[in-house]
Amino acid sequence: MSKPIDNRIIEHVAKILGEELTGSKIDDMFDQLGLINLDKIERGYTSTKWRRIHESVLVKCKENNSALPFFLVIQYVLTPSSYIDKPDYWKKILRGINSQLMFYGFEVNDAGRVIETEVVESFGDGQRRLQSFTERLSAYEIHPEILKYCTDELFSENYFHAILEASKGLLHRLREMSGLDLDGSTLVNEAFIIRKPVIVINGNKMESLTEKSEYNGLKSLLNTIVYLYRNPKAHEPKLYNPSSESDAVTAFTLMSMAHSILDNCIRVR
Questions:
Q1: Which of 88, 89, 125, 236 holds its CA 20 to 30 A away from the CA of 19?
Q2: 100 neighbors 130 (Cβ within 8 angstroms)
Q3: Neighbours of 85 (CB within 10 A)
Q4: Which helix (DSSP H) or strand (DSSP E) does residue 172 occupy?
Q5: pTM for the complete prediction?
Q6: Are the C-beta atoms of residues 154 and 147 closer than 8 Å to each other?
């Protein structure tokens, strides 16, 4: 449950937003959002940009007994189209504002909208919340082949499509290694026929039970990835939650394992 917004957070965010606007643009914003322009009404001088935003927002929030005017100012400034050529800066400014909002149960999403979210209580939870999924994923030492195929989806934290693209990338690699023009489980099964394989694990002669189990283990792993992540459509029931970060980590870990084993595989026919 969200907590009431206080003066401290409004001041902090006003300092960030003040760097994004000129004085004339602040005048325009006040006009469009119906905020009082204290510089023009009560003072004979121009205050600093952040103070103008801070004071006007405070007046309107107290008048409405609501944080909505504060949120509308944030959304007015953080229009995604204004930052489309500055993705790193966009992430930086969202991080700066969300580092404060999250302790009150709010955050600015990638659409520039203020949304309600779970209140962050501790420093550690705050650090984890501020990390992007890609940054959190780095702790698992995910194979670089995976990131090559789903960078855009990971950037937007679109787990379902990131997983789908990563699984397609794994099969694309398998097609290149095998020379087979197939897809899905048909590709896997044809490439890993134990009696006449196209691809083998380097050094594995498939003579002992252990070697055959290792080989079949790779084949089964690849087929599991196909059945769980390559074949399902967005509207169909799945054995994983496409909005779950934990399930996404599991998917990428399995695919990373498959890529790591393929690193040690060779084509024999």
A1: 125
A2: no
A3: 8
A4: helix 159-178
A5: 0.59
A6: yes
